[in-house]
């Protein structure tokens, strides 16, 4: 039987996530091969103990130092608002923001006391079921997940004096998993299949939803799997697919189904689009409830919009995201949309890539551009950003004359150190999900410079295919660069396709704008980067978690 490591963490806990990536470089690009999808996890805990506690820790280590341990993940601990009784067979803990497993373990403790082990039989978004019962009475305790581990290094005991000392233990956690995916969510996707969606519209919608399903299938969580419902609708529901606790095989089959031709028919009945939602969400329990609503037309009959709103309001805690395909009038879709901050995006007909990025960015709470995450974390702006510019070269010295320097790579690489801090589980869990998504050096993301290099000289209006900006950078250096316009809500990102001098400064050619841009809007150039290491170290303190990331510009093909 594995031994429980029972001590509360009194000092900062250090966690290391370690992936393995082979990077194959050429003069102009690189190829990255991810050899480990789930990281190796090393957790270092430091405890302040009195004399008897130090003796107990030493005895524990002697008894089981080479065996299995059950180690609490105190950095994911949460205080619950209810008491625990010894006969309880369930614990009401928010499980979406911590790594609870089933079957697995959890611990409970009160007022910094020793941890008590719980065996977890099942995990729900709002709690976990136990087998056997809790076996202890506690008042509003702290609950944390626990994992099997092996002690990776000798136990360190530092005695300050006879009655006080510190114990440092380093553990290699077992059963690592990819935690990058969506979890504990019931996702309802309503796709307009009316006649007006024919051609590139329906093709782009189905392809974007298929890409979403494939990404979910690539990162199925170990617990709290997701429910999915895909509805094709017009005047009636023409096709329906429902998955419960979806695994890789089920999601792969759904992706294949989304490749099939879609029969279209008359009608755009918004109420029909949501008609399957009450039953679907009723069977999802306490999972997060999300609706993705895709349409290209106004409701027909128009009364169906109000009826759909009534249906939506009958479902508690429902998040509805509306998307228009080639329809600039967003007023009808906005009636259903419950997330006013991002508005209703309008996607050009046939623009599969943009629709895919918007759908995935919505689900994972991070903007995407050309298939990559865009780092928009505000904590990046509250720190000094150190940067380096370098190019690999080789010096050739014959010993008889000048030294000749030969560049080894065409790319001048920008390096940056990011220091990110998160307070509370609600912020630290999305960071963990994102780090798992990057897989060390394997995946790239977009990083704005936050340098305000693009200063508008004239406001932009929807449909404009150029930005007029202040001069300062040589036009040739701007072509093929990507600029982020820092609007409230969803950022606006465009590639600069041309640049030339103009009486207003510089004229930058871009894809047409889909919304107004005020002259005061700051613009930042973006660089595609990746982590410069496979080893990520997080420091967990009571005030929050911190991580420093060294990133390096990469030349991924776009």
What does this structure look like?
This protein is α+β, with helices and mostly antiparallel strands and 558 residues long. It has 3 domains: 3-173, no CATH class; 185-365, von Willebrand factor, type A domain (Rossmann fold); 378-553, no CATH class. The chain has 10 helices and 36 strands. The chain has a 21-stranded mixed β-sheet that branches. Helix 2 (200-218) runs antiparallel to helix 3 and helix 2 packs across helix 8 (352-364). The model has no long low-confidence stretch (mean pLDDT 92).
Largest sheet composition: 21 strands, mixed
Q: How many distinct domains?
A: 3
The CATH architecture of the largest domain is 3-Layer(aba) Sandwich
The average pLDDT value, as a whole number, equals 92
Structural class: alpha+beta
Number of helices: 10
Shape: globular
The fourth-level CATH homologous superfamily of the largest domain is von Willebrand factor, type A domain
Q: Count of DSSP E strands?
A: 36
End-to-end Cα distance, whole Å, is: 51 Å
Under CATH, the topology of the largest domain can be stated as Rossmann fold
Share of helix, binned: 10-25%
CATH classification, class level of the largest domain: Alpha Beta
Low-confidence blocks of residues: none
Strand content: 35-45%
Instruction: Provide the gyration radius in Å.
Output: 27 Å
């Amino acid at each position: 039987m594995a031994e429980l490591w029972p001590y509360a963490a009194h000092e900062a806990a250090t966690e290391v996530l370690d992936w393995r990536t082979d990077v194959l470089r050429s003069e102009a690009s690189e190829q990255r091969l991810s050899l480990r999808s789930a990281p190796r996890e090393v957790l270092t805990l430091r405890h302040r103990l009195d004399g008897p506690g130090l003796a107990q820790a030493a005895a524990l280590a002697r008894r089981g130092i080479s065996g299995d341990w059950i180690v609490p993940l105190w950095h994911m601990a949460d205080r619950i608002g209810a008491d625990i009784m010894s006969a309880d067979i369930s614990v009401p803990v928010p499980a979406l923001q911590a790594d609870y497993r089933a079957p697995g373990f959890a611990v409970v403790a009160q007022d910094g006391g020793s941890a008590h082990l719980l065996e977890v039989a099942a995990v729900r978004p709002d709690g976990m079921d136990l087998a056997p019962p809790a076996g202890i009475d506690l008042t509003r305790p702290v609950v944390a997940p626990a994992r099997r581990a092996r002690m990776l290094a000798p136990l360190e005991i530092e005695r300050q004096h006879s009655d006080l000392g510190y114990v440092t233990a380093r553990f290699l956690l077992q059963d690592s998993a990819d935690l990058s995916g969506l979890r504990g969510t019931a996702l309802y996707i309503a796709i307009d299949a009316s006649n007006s969606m024919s051609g590139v519209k329906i093709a782009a919608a189905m392809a974007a939803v298929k890409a979403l399903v494939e990404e979910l299938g690539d990162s199925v969580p170990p617990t709290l799997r997701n429910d999915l419902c895909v509805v094709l609708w017009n005047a009636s529901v023409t096709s329906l697919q429902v998955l419960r606790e979806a695994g890789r095989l089920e999601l792969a089959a759904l992706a294949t189904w989304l490749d099939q031709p879609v029969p279209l028919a008359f009608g755009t009945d918004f109420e029909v689009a949501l008609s399957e939602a009450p039953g679907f969400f009723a069977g999802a329990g306490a999972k997060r409830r999300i609706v993705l609503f895709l349409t290209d037309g106004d409701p027909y009959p128009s009364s169906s919009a109000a009826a759909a709103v009534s249906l939506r309001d009958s479902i508690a805690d429902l998040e509805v995201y509306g998307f228009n395909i080639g329809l600039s009038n967003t007023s009808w879709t906005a009636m259903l949309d419950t997330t006013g901050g991002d508005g209703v995006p309008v996607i050009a007909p046939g623009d599969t890539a943009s629709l895919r990025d918007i759908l995935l960015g919505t689900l994972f709470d991070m903007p995407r551009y050309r298939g990559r995450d865009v780092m928009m974390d505000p904590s990046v702006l509250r720190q000094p950003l150190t940067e380096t510019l370098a190019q690999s070269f080789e010096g050739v010295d014959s010993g008889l004359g000048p030294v000749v320097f030969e560049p080894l790579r065409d790319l001048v690489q920008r390096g940056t150190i990011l220091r990110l801090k998160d307070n509370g589980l609600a912020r630290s869990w999305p960071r963990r999900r994102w780090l798992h998504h990057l897989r060390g050096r394997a995946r790239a993301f977009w990083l704005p410079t936050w340098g305000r290099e693009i200063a508008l000289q004239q406001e932009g209006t929807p449909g404009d295919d150029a930005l007029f900006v202040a001069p300062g950078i040589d036009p040739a250096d701007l072509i093929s660069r990507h600029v982020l316009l820092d609007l409230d809500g969803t950022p606006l990102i465009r590639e600069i396709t041309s640049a030339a001098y103009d009486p207003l400064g510089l004229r930058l050619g871009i894809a047409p704008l889909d919304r107004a841009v005020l002259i005061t809007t700051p613009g930042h150039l973006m660089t595609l980067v990746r982590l410069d290491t496979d080893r990520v170290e997080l420091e967990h303190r009571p005030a929050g978690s911190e991580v420093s990331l060294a990133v390096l510009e990469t030349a991924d093909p776009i």
